[in-house]
Amino acid sequence: MTEDLKRRLQVIGLTEEDEILFEPFAVHAASWPGFSEIETISDYYEAAQCYIRTVALSFCERGVRFASLDGVLISPFAEIGAGTVIYPNVQIRHGVHIGRNCVIGSGSVIENSTIGDGCVVNATQIYQSVLENNVKIGPFCHVRPNTHLSEGVKIGDFVEIKNSTVGRDTHASHLTYIGDSDVGERVNFGCGTVTVNYDGKHKHRTVIGNDVFIGCNSNLVAPVTLADRSYTAAGSTITDDVPENALGIARARQVNKDGWVTKKNESE
User: Fold this and answer.
1) CB neighbourhood size of 191 (10 A)
2) Rounded to whole angstroms, how far apart are CA atoms 167 and 95?
3) H-helix or E-strand containing 142?
4) HSE of 126 in the Cβ direction (CA atoms, 13 Å)?
5) Which helix (H) or strand (E) holds 263?
6) Euclidean distance between the first and final Cα of the chain, in Å?
7) What tens digit of pLDDT does each residue of 98-146 get?
């Protein structure tokens, strides 16, 4: 980085450590000639827009395709495989590797993560995690650090996953929280499932075996284990381990009060 460019940045209130495309200016942008003549902050932002577009277009030469460049921000050090399609308003930040033939949908943010081949990421934020091949996730999901989604996993809308490993072909289609969990293969999470991992002082892990079926609106109070091929009944709060091939039921039995509405209306 030249002394002249350092001076030009200082004049407009910036430094070589200020970030552009998720990297310090001095690391990559300083070598781009478009910044060499900036005099004002307006000049800088005009040059920055050209730089952002130039970086995005450089990925086209490697076989990446864009539905539109509007709002697309990609670190110049990202690795993106050929055949991947990127939609508008996507951020691919520092430390990202994306495989071949993926679809990265609008509203997605990916940081310090690896995405395998053939993945679909739709309006999802992913941080410090790994998605193996052919994972489908989104929209409106949050993948927090130390998550590993194995091949063929499907995660639907409004799902949050944190510090968990999820086995092959497991599905969590909507409205689920998976935190501090070790999940096996071919597990089905019903809508509204929550791994209750925090007791107010400490985090605890949930262990779920292979081929487990978790009924809708189940609370799994950790530490707890659901063994292979076990089921939980919808609406259950599971506090004890469920053995293999067993159905765990933890809810009050329904009672119907015949004629209750008629009596209520007559008393009013």
Assistant:
1) 17
2) 24
3) strand 141-143
4) 35
5) helix 260-267
6) 83
7) 999 999 999 999 999 999 999 999 999 999 999 999 999 999 999 999 9
Residue with tokens 């001095």: 26
Q: Is 209 helix (H, G, I), strand (E, B) or coil?
A: coil
Tokens 């091939």 appear where?
245
- Cα 171 from Cα 173, distance rounded (Å): 6
d(CA 130, CA 109) in angstroms, rounded, equals 14
pTM for the model: 0.94
Given 94, 174, 202, 204, the catalytic residue = 174
β partners of residue 142: 125, 160
- How many H helices and E strands in the chain? 3, 30
Across residues 190-197, what is the average pLDDT?
98
What are the sequence ranges of the domains in the chain?
A: 1-61
Buried b (16+ CB within 10 A) or exposed e, 55-83: bbeebeeeebebeeeeebbbbbebebbee
From CA 113, how far away is CA 94, in angstroms rounded? 9
Q: How confident is the model at residue 268 (pLDDT cuts 50, 70, 90)?
A: confident
Let me know if 202 is a catalytic residue: no
